[in-house]
Amino acid sequence: MPYIFVVDEKNFWKCLQNKIFGIPATTKAVGQIMNVKKYEKLFLYVFGKRKIFGVYKAISDPFKEEKPERGPWIQRKYDEKHGYYPFRIKIDVENGFGIGLPIEELERRNIGITRSFFNGKSVGYISEHQAEIIEDLLKEINIKKEKIEINFSEFPSNIIPLNPLEIYKEKESILQVLVQQNIELIENEIKVVDSYFPVKGYGWGGEIDILAKDKDQNYVIVELKIGNLPPQIWSQLLSYSYAIRNIFAKVENVNVRTVAIGKGFEQKALYAYPELKLLVKNPDSLKVFKYQSDFRNKLVLDEVKVST
After folding, report:
1. What pLDDT shows up at residue 165?
2. Is 192 helix (H, G, I), strand (E, B) or coil?
3. Pick from 88, 103, 91, 113: nearest CA to 39
4. Cα 158 to chain center, whole Å?
């Protein structure tokens, strides 16, 4: 699955020269990079330039750098503020296009990638269809242009296995990473593709806690609550489903499913949403789970049968 990493203009070249991408020491960033796997196709969005560069390939799984203060991003207070980007992934340059793709070009094509997509993101999932469009446009604007020459100097990493739970403090964040790590408790062969995925509609916006794909490549939206599921979660799930259907599912000719996880819920809250009554007729379209957790390493999910 393809991903776009976000970097500022100052650190862009250091990422390529050292063949390594890094993210800040924040819970959201770690939740995003843990979904990226070795051999995935990658791009870079440089927010100072408002351009996308590529094409790159992950040649390692995500890891933690033991001593991030050694480099390569250590020039500024800004870098120190972000912990010198301790969570990293090694990359190779597959196609070093010298001219970046302006984000405005993608916005004009209305394929679901805009400037706002990168707000608060360190790593973002994109579909194969979106990746193909980006790569084709990069090829088009780089016709007859020489490939950039990069003086590579692979950074000597001191690798520590990535353990996201070590930086999580709040229970909701811990629950989220436990679900990401144990996503197959929901069902077999389901895979997380992103977390904190931003979506917008007319007059509203939000972040999907976990975005996954099932064995049939349908999208699965997973929303989590520490306490009981509030009544408004059902309208939230419907809005998120509509957004993902428009961004991804229509083009890929797949469905969108929803999962809600909490301590409990009131079944009568479903009655207020006629759309949910239609969803529940298909037993796989909407699933509800109660969780049990010690917020360290234990997670149990018990499915609650819903009906209207």
Report:
1. 83
2. strand
3. 91
4. 25
Find the range with the poorest average confidence among 54-68, 118-132, 256-270.
256-270
The 3-state DSSP class for residue 179 equals helix
CATH of the domain at 126: 3.10.590.10
Average the pLDDT over 6-28 and give the result.
93
| Of the residues 163, 185, 200, the one at which a domain ends | 163
Strands 256-262 and 219-224: parallel
Given the structure tokens 């979904």, which residue do they identify?
35
∠ CA 151-153-158, rounded to 5°: 160
The arrangement of strands across the sheet holding 191-201 comes to 191-201, 204-213, 219-224, 256-262, 286-293, 299-304
User: Per residue in 67-110, pLDDT tens?
Assistant: 999 999 998 999 999 999 999 999 999 887 888 999 999 999 99
Amino acid at 75: Q
Q: What is the pTM of this model?
A: 0.91
* Domain final position from 132, 163, 194: 163
At residue 273 the predicted structure's pLDDT band, cuts being 50, 70 and 90, is low
